[in-house]
Design goal:
Largest sheet: none
Structural class: mainly alpha
Helix content: over 70%
Radius of gyration: 13 Å
Distance between the termini: 15 Å
Number of helices: 4
Number of strands: 0
Number of domains: 1
Strand content: under 5%
Length: 55
Protein backbone atom coordinates (compact mmCIF):
# COMPACT_ATOMS: atom_id res chain seq x y z
CA UNK A 1 0.00 0.00 0.00
CA UNK A 2 1.39 3.39 -0.92
CA UNK A 3 2.05 6.05 1.68
CA UNK A 4 -0.56 8.29 0.02
CA UNK A 5 -3.21 5.58 0.25
CA UNK A 6 -2.43 5.02 3.91
CA UNK A 7 -2.72 8.74 4.64
CA UNK A 8 -6.07 8.83 2.85
CA UNK A 9 -7.30 5.93 4.99
CA UNK A 10 -6.09 7.67 8.14
CA UNK A 11 -7.94 10.81 7.09
CA UNK A 12 -11.19 9.17 5.98
CA UNK A 13 -11.49 6.37 8.55
CA UNK A 14 -12.45 8.55 11.53
CA UNK A 15 -15.26 10.13 9.51
CA UNK A 16 -16.54 6.77 8.35
CA UNK A 17 -16.31 5.22 11.80
CA UNK A 18 -18.12 8.18 13.36
CA UNK A 19 -20.87 7.76 10.78
CA UNK A 20 -21.18 4.07 11.64
CA UNK A 21 -21.23 4.78 15.37
CA UNK A 22 -23.68 7.67 15.14
CA UNK A 23 -25.96 6.30 12.45
CA UNK A 24 -25.99 2.53 12.77
CA UNK A 25 -25.12 1.59 16.34
CA UNK A 26 -28.18 0.67 18.36
CA UNK A 27 -26.64 1.27 21.77
CA UNK A 28 -27.01 5.07 22.02
CA UNK A 29 -30.78 4.54 21.78
CA UNK A 30 -31.03 1.62 24.21
CA UNK A 31 -28.51 2.48 26.91
CA UNK A 32 -29.70 5.15 29.27
CA UNK A 33 -26.43 6.38 30.75
CA UNK A 34 -23.24 7.70 29.20
CA UNK A 35 -21.23 5.39 31.47
CA UNK A 36 -23.05 2.33 30.11
CA UNK A 37 -22.52 3.53 26.55
CA UNK A 38 -18.82 4.19 27.19
CA UNK A 39 -18.45 0.69 28.62
CA UNK A 40 -20.14 -0.83 25.56
CA UNK A 41 -17.95 1.25 23.23
CA UNK A 42 -14.80 -0.05 24.94
CA UNK A 43 -15.51 -3.55 23.61
CA UNK A 44 -16.67 -2.43 20.16
CA UNK A 45 -14.73 -3.70 17.12
CA UNK A 46 -15.06 -0.24 15.58
CA UNK A 47 -13.00 1.18 18.47
CA UNK A 48 -10.33 -1.43 17.84
CA UNK A 49 -10.31 -0.54 14.14
CA UNK A 50 -10.00 3.14 14.97
CA UNK A 51 -7.03 2.45 17.22
CA UNK A 52 -5.33 0.55 14.36
CA UNK A 53 -5.88 3.45 11.97
CA UNK A 54 -4.53 6.02 14.43
CA UNK A 55 -1.17 4.22 14.76
Amino acid sequence: MSKGALEKIRHEAPLLLAKICDGYCMYPQVLTSQDALDEKCESCPMKELMEMVEC
